[in-house]
Amino acid sequence: MPAVDGLGDYALSLSRQLRSDFDIETHFIIGDPTWVGNNKLEGFNVAKVTTCSAKALFDQLARVHSVKIILLHYVGYGYAKRGCPFWLVEGLKSWIRQHSEINLITMFHEVSASGPVWTSAFWLSTSQRNLAIRLVGLSNRILTNRRSYAELLQSYAPERLATIPSLPVFSNVGELQNPSSLSERTRRLVIFGGSSKRSQVYKDSLEQIQKICRHLNIQQIFDIGPALDSLPAEISNVPITAAGCLSSEEISAILSDSIAGFFNYHPAFLGKSGIFAAYCAHRVIPISATMAFLTEEGLQPGKHYALPDQYNTEKKNMALMQAIADHAYAWYKLHNLSAQAKAYYTLLSDLELAQP
Fold it and tell me: What's this model's pTM, rounded to 2 decimal places?
């Protein structure tokens, strides 16, 4: 995995569930030479590559005893600054060439980036795509978090890959088994995420947040994430609490007693948004900054998340808002952490049965 961060949290949570539900142990290899930490994490063995090189990866794999299956959590920018980790693909290729009994499962959290002509993402998109194609060729099984990614990856090897599971990400900050209704909660709005996304919210969406506060009778706004250079003290007399970076348990506790969460993530990518997953897992109302008319990953705009025209009116329809929270929670349960661990276990079992 790249490191112990958002994607690292995903890998750790999944491994924890695989151990709990199916008695499967994981040995982590971190693809970040600068990572600092213990060689044990919650009982799991942890190592890191000494350099970003094929040889360093090969050497680390050689130190893992009785490895039969490698599970790669892939996002190009997690392993290389420009999103082109040639060393990673070369290292895996060398290892698999010398160990034909090894199976590789790749979870594509992203395939390749794109952007305007003045960005490196534009100029390197072809290299990123070629690396993804090579990984598809090396992999025995593939998963991803978006249907459009699954279709793209399948096109890279249609003769080998009949179906590719698409699993929207689970919440990295916990899940609620019996969440309370909105009427029992504090009238709190949560704005959660990285610095750039939250800064954009306060820059572009103040008027929207004002309308949300009026529509839902919000009494508190909790800002959760790395400190921002500038943060309003209040919006329309609703105080903002700068909560900072919190543990997953603390974030879960806040969400479990909040009624709504705001996001400005593009709706086409909600299946890979850990923030959106956290809102759904805690049965809050996910509220979008933008209108959307496309259905992605089974998510219907206005049904699984609230749209601006649903809170731009003074008519307070809390029954509709509760229904949106309920639909989001029901959608999430179909692919929650336990369900995803089962999906991974099925792939692992299939590969083991296929081995001679």
Answer: 0.90
